[in-house]
Amino acid sequence: MKYYRIFFITLIFLSYMNCETSHKKEVKNGTSEVSEITQETLKLMTYNIRLDVASDGENAWPNRKDILTSQVLFLAPDIMGVQEARPNQMEDLRKALKDYKSVGVGRDGENEGEFSAIFYNSKKISVENEATFWLSETPNEISKGWDAAYPRICTYGLFTATNTGQKFWVFNTHLDHVGAEAQKEGMKLILRKIDKINVKGFPVVIMGDFNVEPNSDVIAETQSKMVDAKAIAKVKFGNNGTFNGFKYAEIANRRIDYILISKSSNVEVEKYAVLTSAVDLKFPSDHFPVLVELKIK
């Protein structure tokens, strides 16, 4: 009888501990309310996949698309922002990444030109609304802004983690590689868009190929509202540089790809990595993917 009693008490204790870790009590106006503690861990990645251009020779897209898509499947990001993805590359990614859906349009029109698309694992994430705007003085129409060499865009979405219902914004962009004014004004435009639409104060992530290094005016422009994920990550791994140019000599020289987190959000950056993987001494892209693991409370 004594053993049954101990077993019964143990069950009660374990049940209590499970309840305590899953719920918290809040006292409001003299009444006790029970609300569930929710916490979501997500992996987000930005990846400039290098456009499909025949002049890349042995590094052209047909010779590396299988390596790149296998890499993405292995890393299994919940959210992935891509840059330089042409329509045929988008189609290849959609076919290979079967559990993923994507949002975004090409910079030259609905399915024309390079995408700064966002892929998301549809088994874990849903999207509430999404849009693409141009980094120019006329952001609602196909256009090239300021001193940019090419039209540049930003695609964004309000995403929901299906397990917890937590919402967060992701903005993915590819700033111009030539125009310093276009880089700076483009980032200002993105920050203004965030201020306009994030009225409920959800966590915000800005990711992409910014084509600038950390000491630039563009990064300085973000520092009042955003923080570099690398700076606050609990665990860091990999190179400093994110651009390789398909050459080993380029490794670690230039850091131009970023993931930024809104300062006011209740988000912890558990891990940050620049993944310098290669297969048979060949890189999947001329950029390395940047991967973070976030804990959203």
TrEMBL record:
Write the record's keywords in alphabetical order, separated by commas: Endonuclease, Hydrolase, Nuclease
Cell membrane: is it a keyword of this entry?
Answer: no
What InterPro entries has UniProt attached to this entry? CCR4/nocturin_mRNA_transcr (IPR050410), Endo/exonu/phosph_ase_sf (IPR036691), Endo/exonuclease/phosphatase (IPR005135)
| Gene3D superfamilies noted in UniProt | Endonuclease/exonuclease/phosphatase
Q: Which domain of life is it from?
A: Bacteria
Q: Which stretches are annotated as coiled coil? A: none
Recorded GO molecular functions are: endonuclease activity
Nuclease: present as a keyword of the record? yes
According to the entry, every stretch annotated as the Endonuclease/exonuclease/phosphatase domain falls at 45-287
Put simply, this protein is called Endonuclease/exonuclease/phosphatase family protein
Traced from the root, the source organism's taxonomic lineage reads:
Bacteria, Pseudomonadati, Bacteroidota, Flavobacteriia, Flavobacteriales
